[in-house]
Amino acid sequence: MSVAPTGFRPGLEGVPATQSAISNIDGQRGILSYRGYRIEDLAARSSFLETAYLLIWGELPDPEKLRDFQYDVQMHRRVSFRIRDMLKCFPASGHPMDALQASAASLGLFYANRALDDEDYIRGAVMRLLAKIPTMLAAFHMIRRGQDPIQPRDDLPYASNFLYMLTEREPDPLAARIFDACLVLHAEHTLNASTFSARVTASTLTDPYAVVASAVGTLAGPLHGGANEDVLLMLEEIGSEDRVEDFLDEAISARRKVMGFGHREYKVKDPRASILQGLAENLFDRFGHDKMYDVACRLEAVASERLGPKGIYPNVDFYSGLVYRKLGIPTDLFTPVFALARAAGWLAHWKEQLGANRIYRPTQLYTGASERDWLPLEQRCGDNEVPTG
Ligand code: CMC
Fold it and tell me: What CA–CA distance (Å, rounded) separates 274 from 114?
């Protein structure tokens, strides 16, 4: 980590920017917990909605609370025809993350009566966002293919309903269960870039739709959530196991990042990567092997020798794309699916931020020009070229 004499830490590495009771990472031991519960237990035993409830309200729900929460989310799944019409105006070639960011922000137009000190308003906003994000994403996907959006099915649980709206087929129960576990794994991850974005936006006391929209925009980049899409493109570029060593040599000598590897917090393999690897194997056993998985395993083995000594191991994005691909999810929906799940974490941080708010307003170290005299146009000479056009 580079620390300037002034204490400046690029990327705020190691700088505490909030207090939070939502999740915790032990990066040396590869442990992740939500509200004290290990991610392995939650992925194996809790549903995504149960996990979302835990993250947002701090405790696992009892059966009645869970039933009510599931029912309320189910009741808010439909979206206004105006949102569908808006999605129809987006270019079919546009990235679904951009469509998601715009549609999440647009909810603020429909639900404008902000009341941040009202628990009912907070609960309503949480339910609307968790309920409508999958519907809006699936609708954009159908519309860009020239088809009508598929209405949500009230008899299907959260994860199954999303896969149904995407494919118009009721998913196999194992596939639905694995997809739900993926949502649990992606639901929260301490103060990463998009969550920080969410908290900064929340700290201005704007509405929760703007909070989620700003976080979606931050998640989209290839160094953050966008990496899951790039991993699959990278595996395809490598093509076969025997190309792995050459690929890695070239990447290391060109100082190019290997996508799906490395993490600011983990210095060992990300526990979510290990769980996702297991889920991928379950899917392959049931629905047939993917030879890109062999390439991925080989890459992990070779990279562990070469990058492992620097603490660079697979992160959550390394195996998630292989799982999503086997579930029939198109590559450019991988990051939006990440966002769909992470909305739970962003909303938990929104609620927590409101509970002890102070607007974020860090300082900077000014590195620009000292004070200068303003010159009239005709006296300026051309030694300070600025690109035109
Ligand atoms: N491949 C090769 N070298 C790497 C990688 C990688 N994936 N990640 C880090 N390094 C090296 C980097 O070159 C640098 O080396 P040196 O000290 O010799 O200059 C050192 O490790 C530190 O890297 P950094 O970029 O300063 O580390 P960071 O903490 O700022 O970045 C990261 C963390 C996740 C952005 C980075 O590891 C990365 O770009 N990984 C690839 C993209 C990726 O998989 N992103 C998904 C992150 S996990 C899900 C999420 O949070 O969204």
Answer: 41
Q: What share of the chain is helix, strand, coil (3-state, %, to 5)?
A: 60, 5, 40
- pLDDT at residue 39, rounded to an integer: 98
Q: For domain 41-224+332-355, give its CATH number from 1.10.3720.10, 2.40.110.10, 1.10.580.10, 2.60.120.10.
A: 1.10.580.10
Nearest ligand 1 atom, CA 193: 51
* Ligand 1 midpoint to CA 258 (Å): 8
| Ligand 1 cavity residues, CB under 6 Å | 11, 192, 223-225, 227, 257-264, 307, 310, 312, 315-317
263 included as an active-site residue: yes
Burial of 350 per CB tally in 10 Å (0-12, 13-18, 19+): buried
Cα gap 133→90, rounded to integer Å: 16
Please name the residue whose Cα sits nearest to atom 39 of ligand 1. Answer: 223
Q: Hey, where are the domains in the chain?
A: 41-224+332-355, 227-326
* pLDDT recorded at residue 382: 73
158 CA to centre of own chain: 18
**How far separated are the first and last CA of the chain, in Å rounded?**
38
Question: 50-81: per-residue pLDDT in tens?
Answer: 999 999 999 999 999 999 999 999 999 999 99
Structure tokens given for 338: 């990440």
Q: Which fold has domain 227-326?
A: Cytochrome p450-Terp; domain 2 (1.10.230)
Q: How far apart are CA 180 and CA 52, in angstroms?
A: 12
Q: Which atom of ligand 1 is nearest to the CA of 261?
A: 7
Task: Choose the catalytic residue: 141, 186, 189, 263.
Answer: 263
| 14 touches 1 (CB < 8 A) | yes
CA 234–ligand 1 middle distance (angstroms): 16
Where on the phi/psi map is residue 206: left (φ > 0), alpha (ψ -120 to 50), or beta?
beta
pLDDT digits (tens, 9 = 90+) for 116-166: 999 999 999 999 999 999 999 999 999 999 999 999 999 999 999 999 999
Q: Closest ligand 1 atom to the C-alpha of 225?
A: 52
